[in-house]
Amino acid sequence: MILAVSPLMMTVLSVAAALGYAAVALVQRHSGPAVTRNGLTVAWLLHAVVLASSLLTVPPTFGFGPALSVTAWLVLLVYAIESHIYPQLKAKTPLLALGMVAVLIALLFPGSPYPAVSTPWLPIHWALGIAAYGLIAAAVVHAWWMQRTEKAMRHITVGNEPGIPLLAIERLTFRFVTAGFVLLTATWVAGWGFSEQLYGKAMTWDHKRVFTLLSWCVFAVLLAGRWKLGWRGRTATRMLYAGSGLLLLAYVGSRFVMEVLLHKA
Fold it and tell me: What is the SS3 assignment for 167-204?
């Protein structure tokens, strides 16, 4: 646990993280890869402090804003690691914009305090779900990157970083899908089998669980099609986008409706 952070300090840290992402987006064209990576690291660390300040306090606060913020933070973590593996990578402006917007949304909509955790397994259940969100989001980013790279190759335009093969991006995309699917399965099984221990009540079929199950089915079909039929290209990416959209509706969408439209905690 960490000490509680005042609302003013939370605002300062959030704005600093958002400005950090914006600064990297503005200066990367005129600076070297090392400067870009260092700037991204600083912004990412400030973002991490913001997340820790809300998630590790007592009681923790969470909602659709922090969920989006954590997902963006995990995606940027993946991209930061890849930028060290492929030093020629530049921090893509849409990803930096995602980080900036996610931090500010979490500042405006911080969610609601959760009651005291009654079991040590509940944080693990949350961590599995958040990690699944992050890995699926990373897969979506790589699928988008893959489509851009393929389009650039077809039109023989300059827009793809040299030295990053299209097949390598495709392999990374499906590795993220597979890892996210495994964690999503673990999250679903834990929620189904230990609902009473985690939340003090039996599991009910609400819209969140229905959307999660639909998303799980789409990813299962996608991975089966990839393994058995060699699916790739538009068919695979469209299914990935569909499954990710359903997963987004499962928690973020439902919490957005509750917190913003219905004004319920």
Answer: HHHHHHHHHHHHHHHHHHHHHHHHHHHCHHHHHCCCCC
User: Are the C-beta atoms of 26 and 55 separated by less than 8 Å?
Assistant: no
pTM comes to 0.81
Please say whether the beta carbons of 14 and 104 come within 8 A.
yes
- Phi and psi (nearest 5°) for 62? -155, 155
What does CATH list as the number for 117-265? Answer: 1.20.120
Distance CA 101, CA 18 (A): 7
Structure tokens at 24: 């990297």
User: In this structure, what DSSP letter does residue 4 have?
Assistant: -
Q: How many CA atoms lie within 13 A of 216 on its CB side?
A: 17
Contact 168, 150 (CB under 8 A): no
CA within 13 Å, CB half, 123: 13
Q: Residue 218 pLDDT > 80, yes or no?
A: yes
| Domains of the chain, residue spans | 1-116, 117-265
Concatenate the DSSP letters of all residues of 119-175 into one string.
STHHHHHHHHHHHHHHHHHHHHHHHHHHHHHHHHHHHT-S-S-TT--HHHHHHHHHH
Confidence of residue 200 (pLDDT cuts 50, 70, 90): low
Coil/strand/helix, residue 62: strand
